[in-house]
Amino acid sequence: MHLNVFNEVSAAEAAEILRPCIDVERWINDLVSARPFSSLAALHESATRSAAPFNRDEIAAALAHHPRIGERAGGNSQEATLSRGEQAALDLNADIIERLAAANRAYEQRFDRVFLIRAAGRSSEEILAECQRRLENTDEAELAEVADQLRQIALLRLQDAVKN
């Protein structure tokens, strides 16, 4: 969608454009109420500012929409479509799928939530290495990393959703 159109649609329509980026009501409401944006840079600056930081409840709500890394997101929602696209470049041979499944299990046992990482631009091996590294994080350090990954995903999705 063009920035000018995004600026002019109703608040409800603007919220529905933003929701697939990250389903965090405060972030969505902040951006909807900050319209009109004079430029994409202004939109992205506002989005970045509003996403720093996401709190624990916002992170939990956003994670509810993310599949395990290496697993195909089900359904026809915009979030599922975006997730499938973001993971499409991963080399998901049988060995990688098995190793990602084991990494996901270890992460979920350790942190009691799905492992989240910005998959876009990363290889399967890099994702596996990041999961192993992050298993050593304290709970608070990992929560901060998850918030950062959510922010990166949201901003990438926003770039695709609203353009010049």
Automatic annotation (TrEMBL):
Catalytic EC class: lyase
Alphabetized Gene3D superfamilies for the sequence: Oxo-4-hydroxy-4-carboxy-5-ureidoimidazoline decarboxylase (1.10.3330.10)
GO molecular function terms attached to this record: 2-oxo-4-hydroxy-4-carboxy-5-ureidoimidazoline decarboxylase activity
Keyword Cell membrane among UniProt keywords: no
Catalytic activity: 5-hydroxy-2-oxo-4-ureido-2,5-dihydro-1H-imidazole-5-carboxylate + H(+) = (S)-allantoin + CO2
Alphabetized PANTHER family for the sequence: 2-OXO-4-HYDROXY-4-CARBOXY-5-UREIDOIMIDAZOLINE DECARBOXYLASE-RELATED
Annotated keywords: Decarboxylase, Lyase, Purine metabolism
NCBIfam families: PRK13798.1, UraD_2
UniProt source species: Glutamicibacter soli
Residue span(s) of domain Oxo-4-hydroxy-4-carboxy-5-ureidoimidazoline decarboxylase: 7-159
Domain of life assignment: Bacteria
Enzyme Commission numbers on file: 4.1.1.97
Pfam families, alphabetized: OHCU_decarbox
InterPro entries on file: OHCU_decarboxylase, OHCU_decarboxylase-2, OHCU_decarboxylase_sf
Stated name of the protein: 2-oxo-4-hydroxy-4-carboxy-5-ureidoimidazoline decarboxylase
Gene Ontology biological process terms in this record: purine nucleobase metabolic process; urate catabolic process
Chain's gene name: uraD
Pathway: Purine metabolism; urate degradation; (S)-allantoin from urate: step 3/3
